């Protein structure tokens, strides 16, 4: 069996078109045009690309945005002061601080500062706490993107065995909370695996839906996948590719070519989870404006 490819790019375009339509309806009915402020500290080229693509996606959905670019040497106190000003500004509906931050700044302290009402990344303790408590407000974009991608591909997690490889605050933990909620589109039986998991292949083979967010190429090989399973590959790893002009290419955490021969459905990298993450950020920004 060759797996159905879940086209994250096409599904993300669908979501983005819906957001654009909903933004116009919100503005027409007298609501404020949603505004997103993206804060970037330092000059990491990958982060600069992410920030620019978020701004472009916002603009295409009718959401205004601005980028606040601060020098690498910015102190924690200076950044916190800027965030407090954004918290207090009624024209700003969503605040996103691009990670990673330079080492002199504590990400925890930054997340403690962002107003929970403007936390479109869903990563503040208040947002994560609400999600864990079963009454989410802003769900982090990657987990909600994965849920949407499943549902829009007619793969309902309800009653399914889901295994998530990775327990980060960004992906694994919020996704486990989201998919195990007693709610429509969730209701799954969820296992979270990590480097302390014994016999990982035995655990992943139990999965009807396997989500991999380990950050290492080839973490999942074909012997680790149950035939017919849905495989969601969150990983983004740059590997050497001398045949390419750029000298490298992007791969996920799953051995895609081999696994697609046994899986029922699989997401590619690139073109899978990545585009969904940006689309769900727009959903959260509209929600913040509402
Ligand atoms: P992270 O904070 O480094 O967490 C990785 C997790 O995977 C950890 O919990 C780690 O376990 C676990 N892990 C690593 N190697 C493993 C192995 N061999 N077996 C079992 N567990 C293993 O990473 P992250 O922020 O969650 O991101 C994960 C990947 O997803 C990265 O490649 C990142 O670039 C990508 N990502 C993509 C998007 C997107 O939109 N496409 C969004 C977010 C992240 P321990 O806790 O035991 O160390």
Q: What number is the mean pLDDT?
A: 97
Detail the poorly predicted runs: none
**Which hetero ligands occur in this complex?**
NADP nicotinamide-adenine-dinucleotide phosphate
| Tally of alpha and pi helices | 10
Return the string of H and E elements: EHEHEHEHHHEHEHEEEEHEH
Sheet having the most strands: 6 strands, parallel
- How many angstroms does the end-to-end distance come to? 45 Å
Give the proportion of residues in helices. 25-40%
**Structure classification:** alpha/beta
Which strand-content bin applies to the residues?
Answer: 15-25%
Question: Nearest-angstrom radius of gyration?
Answer: 19 Å
**Apparent shape:** globular
* Total DSSP E strands: 11
Strand order of the largest sheet: 1-11-8-7-5-6
Structural overview:
Strand 2, helix 2 (45-60) and strand 3 (64-70) form a beta-alpha-beta unit. The longest helix has 21 residues, at 8-28. It contains 10 helices and 11 strands. A 6-stranded parallel beta sheet has the order 1-11-8-7-5-6. Strands 3-2-4 form a 3-stranded parallel beta sheet, with helices on both faces. The protein is globular and about 55 Å long. The chain is an alpha/beta fold and 290 residues long. Bound molecules: NADP nicotinamide-adenine-dinucleotide phosphate. NADP nicotinamide-adenine-dinucleotide phosphate is lined by residues 142, 165-168, 170-172, 193-197, 200, 213-216, 219, 234-237, 273-274, 277.
